[in-house]
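User: What would this chain look like folded?
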Amino acid sequence: MESGRPDARFAQTDFQPGAAPEFPVGFNRSDLFGGDHPDQSPLGKAISATAQFLKERQHAAGFWVAELEGDTILESEYILLLAYLGEENSEFAIAAATYILEQQCPHGGWALFPNGPLEISASVKAYWALKITGHSPDADYMQRAREAILEAGGAEKVNSFTRYYMALLGLISYHQCPAVPPELVLLPRWTRLSIYDMSAWSRTILMPLSLLWAYKPHRDLPEEQQIEELFIKSARKLSICNDVTEKVDDLTYRSRIPWAWMFRQFDRGYKLIERCGGPPLRNKSIRIAAGWILERLQNSDGLGAIFPPIVWSLVALKSLGFEDDSYEVVTTRQQLDALILHGKNSQGEKTVRLQPCKSPVWDTSIATLALAETGQADCKEAVAAASKWMRSQEIRSYGDWSITHRDVEPGGWCFEFNNEFYPDVDDTAMVLMALSKSLPDDLHADWLAELIPQSERVLEKRLSTIVSGKSEHLQSAMNDVSRLQPSLDAFRRGVQWLLAMQSKNGGWGAFDSNNDFELLTRVPFADHNAMIDPPTPDITARVLEALAMLGVNSQHEAIQKALVFLWKHQEEDGSWPGRWGVNYIYGTWQVVVGLIAVGISSEDARIQKAINWLKASQQSNGGWGETPDSYDHPELRGTGNVTPSQTAWAILALVAAGESHSTAVFDGVRYLIETQRTDGSWEETEFTGTGFPKVFYLRYHYYRIYFPLLALARYRRAARITTPS
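Assistant: Here's the prediction, encoded as structure tokens.
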């Protein structure tokens, strides 16, 4: 790109309600639309009801945040931590156990998502947590759980992180866990095995685990609280290195070298060295690892701001000698407690459940976008407040991402309230889109903003903003620019940061660029199927959507490289997989929207193939649904219980592709309207969010709110400005 040529042009956003002309609508849609203002049609009432639902739940500071629900691994691990701390009889532990018991499945074990198959690690930890908190192993539900676990292969089949809890509580030795050497922190980048070659979330988990490996803290629980009965053989006969898990994805290339076997031989060799006297750089490694953790506890809602590293960092801090009343331990415990939600079960007993983290930036950006898309004047105030809050959340400091991008100005957003070292691409893209739809509509001129590169470097260049427009009143014009400046600055930094985070293959990952060294997925402690953070179609397409919304030229080199990446990852049936949402419906929605946004014609044969796949996946009631089981069994793609969020994703894709007057879209919209509850919400108990494919899934409690609202709003706008075909 030539120096001085605009990277992007973005103008004032039209926020006027009813600005788009209306056209006749076919397929007997007259019952959906109303010609009066405000819109009193069923569609208009549905949109207004959901908008009101969101407005009533907006926090005074301007943000939204709903519960983020995971499986019972969270409550189980919380109880196991409390057991290590000697608090297994506490009120919180008992209440968490009550919640775990309530989630037991008919098959006797515990699953990763509602109605899912037994998951061995989740089931073993749930049984153990119940036993620790006083539930008798002779109880019927405990016997059923034990039988189901043994039938599934026994506690020998648990994953690496579960083994660390077993070592922490004296059931097995640390040498029966996969080694997490603290010396990892000393490995340079050129080895491709450094901590910065691991995904951000793995990095924050493995660093405190490395201190557990070094100090080997443990509390030996009494025999009556152990789970020897869950092993086919015996806990003490557990191998010193766990078997290769089936949950880890295959390599994308063929290799004749048995890397998994080789890494396990290294694991055994390293443990032998330790028994012979220990590595010579152990003290230095501990010192650096401890400093790394302490630095990242600052300005964050706990290490990584997510549950697993918060738990392990608490144990690591105590291993380092920090007292219970120290600032570091007290603060970390408070950050863990902040993830607790209290409730009651059907019998009125107190329950405690844990969130894996909090999602305010994600919830706020999508809610803002949905409200802005309604075009309703009564949403302006909520949108403006949310816009102000989102701008205040921009991360202006350097984090782990800057290790490979030292020349890039910080300018991203994280998922949580505070996670300074870990802004992510997905949230940044979504916030930029929300901000672009939140510009004031009472300006005194049609202003045009342009991003101008300051150098020839494409991916790590700095951008400048030039604003132009005409106004008869100088002071009014100056006031306009002053009001726009915070958003324009955020756009400039955000676009600049996104462009820098693109990987060499043209795609975008979540937290880092080029974090795709697949051999790391073969190390023994990589069985959480998320050891690396490679580019994915869903995030890549969302970045394209954001860049397009901000006016980035579709011929920009970054966009052209991303297109190559996306076409390469399309499945034979026309769909795309979803990394961060379940699954092919999520991925296909986002990719179609992103491709259309940057100018790919809806008539393109590949787009049509995706549209045909979505239509073929629509169910008889007009909705769409897909089970998380599609990650393990791709033949299940596009099938599952119908959900409002997944129905909304499909509608959004179809509307973007010009299908607003199709029968498929009409039936999908009708399904949403007919299933809407009186308060403007929808019922959705399924998990449609993805943490780690095959390992951890999520239920975002607002997905059933803002995604249907966004779909209905975009449908209303599109159906009014396009002629039926």
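The mean pLDDT is 89. If you want, I can go into more detail on any region.
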